[in-house]
């Protein structure tokens, strides 16, 4: 069964640091997203539609 080429510690360090930075950027854009349009709720009395 063919095996992957051996990786040294520098390539592993660069790969995992790049993955770490990419995850930080992704979480910043996923969880800290502020929408540009804000939804305003008005408390207006709604008449009852039930009889």
TrEMBL record:
It comes from the Eukaryota. Keywords: Membrane, Mitochondrion, Transmembrane, Transmembrane helix. The chain crosses the membrane at residues 12-33. The keyword Transmembrane helix applies. This is ATP synthase F0 subunit 8. It comes from Alcidodes juglans. The lineage of its organism: Eukaryota, Metazoa, Ecdysozoa, Arthropoda, Hexapoda.
